[in-house]
Amino acid sequence: MSEETHQCKYCEEQFDEEKMLKKHYYVEHPKKPNPLNNKISRKYGRIVGNIERCFFAYEKTYAVLSTSQIESWYNERYKNGITKQRLSHFLRTRSQFRKVKKARFKSTNLTESWWSLGDLEKPVEVDIGGYWVEVPLLD
Where are the beta strands (DSSP E) in 42-126? Predict the structure, then answer.
C-alpha cells in the first residue's frame, strides 16, 4: 500500500493525512482561501449573475460598490428585488466577491460594507464620510 502525501499550496509543507492538511490551512493560513473546502453549489446562479452584472455596469466608474448601491441597482431592474440581508449572504458566501471595507454609523449598529468583484490590483480608497467609523475586517 503506497503512502500518499498531501502538500500545502502556500508553503509547500508535506502531510501524511488530509485531515492534518486541513488543520494546517485553518491555523497557518486563515486569511487565504482553503482549497479543500467544498465547492459552492450552482443554486441561485441567476441571482448571483445579476449581482455580477451590477459590478460590470459600474466597472468604468467604481471598482468598489457598497451593499446599498448594489441593492438599489438590483431592485430598480428586477421585478422581485432583493433584501439587504439576502444580498449580504450572497456576497459573503460566493468566492468571486471580496469585502474591501466595512464601516459603522456613529452611535448606532447600522453598518455598511464595500465589495469588489475579484481581487483588486491596487488598494482602492473608499470615502466613508464624516459620521461613519471604519470597522476592521475580520477574515
Answer: 65-66, 97-105, 111-117
